[in-house]
Amino acid sequence: xxxxxxxxxxxxxxxxxxxxxxxxxxxxxxxxxxxxxxxxxxxxxxxxxxxxxxxxxxxxxxxxxxxxxxxxxxxxxxxxxxxxxxxxxxxxxxxxxxxxxxxxxxxxxxxxxxxxxxxxxxxxxxxxxxxxxxxxxxxxxxxxxxxxxxxxxxxxxxxxxxxxxxxxxxxxxxxxxxxxxxxxxxxxxxxxxxxxxxxxxxxxxxxxxxxxxxxxxxxxxxxxxxxxxxxxxxxxxxxxxxxxxxxxxxxxxxxxxxxxxxxxxxxxxxxxxxxxxxxxxxxxxxxxxxxxxxxxxxxxxxxxxxxxxxxxxxxxxxxxxxxxxxxxxxxxxxxxxxxxxxxxxxxxxxxxxxxxxxxxxxxxxxxxxxxxxxxxxxxxxxxxxxxxxxxxxxxxxxxxxxxxxxxxxxxxxxxxxxxxxxxxxxxxxxxxxxxxxxxxxxxxxxxxxxxxxxxxxxxxxxxxx
Length: 465
Prior knowledge:
Distance between the termini: 55 Å
Strand order of the largest sheet: 1-2
Radius of gyration: 23 Å
Protein name: Amino acid transporter AVT6A
CATH topology: Amino acid/polyamine transporter I
CATH architecture: Up-down Bundle
Order of helices and strands: HHHHHEEHHHHHHHHHHH
Shape: globular
CATH class: Mainly Alpha
Helix content: 55-70%
Strand content: under 5%
Number of domains: 1
Structural class: mainly alpha
Number of strands: 2
């Protein structure tokens, strides 16, 4: 499948440089093919290829990267790495289908192509899923940032945050104050940027910080391999009965949601200086993120083995048994917290656009209405801030709703658009793949529901046992 060949032949002939001034052309399409052509950014010549790659990569690599080493513990290295590669190819296929039907229907947004296929109900369904997924994701990000910097208490055990460990427990190192400072100093300014390309620098820095975590993990692992303190990891899953076999499927939602970036693809495509580059942008981003995922999973599992926790960051809360181990722990935790701070605006961008489309479907472009732009932006930031501060136990609930909405965005909706085939461009191979994607998405949802319900039941039943 290719993405770059999606543009109709006639449109290719009419394509002009974005930098040229508009001229009268009786054959030109009546509607602009790119949002920025009517958005008032006359001095914006288009996003660069590199900036687009880092923006899409930042959309992909979020908090989920820390859960991947635990999937290796469940599946073994061979099957785990194979699953990462398989899901990357599946994500590329779903994005290709989504963009192909966007070109055919002349849609410049995910909501637009859903509306083209299923009408108003389809557009609203997509917008609601983006709201559920992204709000939940951002609240979880803020909760993790608070845990890393200010500490957290779980089951009566207090885990000191970085600031508390350095300076002690004070009012200014408390969760609420720290998150307020982060919100005002980082989230609010970055949320005021009206173009996603304006986030390319912070996205680059975010990816670099993810690589810092990876480099430290690789370095520690190699050091411990040389002194013989690491044993050979399990290559295949350890299945000893029905229960252990069922537990293998609990990692499916992690893999299914690992490459969800579809809600930002159109925004990045719309701002590209040359939108025929979107094929290379998507593939480069998926290749970069797959490499980071594989290396993080491999060396994280090598380092901690069967002691690998569901969130590998929690493994860096103890003595690593190497020189300067506690310093490296702090570097890992701080780099990860800053990484999430910089991921926040790239996930917030489509959240704001979709809420605006849901509330004001017929209004002028959001970037032209400063009052509406500011009201939606700060209203969403305030809601996320309150959620992270006052309902931190919300983690499990948003993990469930986020995973459910994410698979709809990444697989069910693109597959449904292709099976609908309103423009008659889907092949038989496409439709077979779409049936498989929907089956995988439904299965992962059922697994997520089962796992969350079972964990909740076990948690509630344990005090009575």
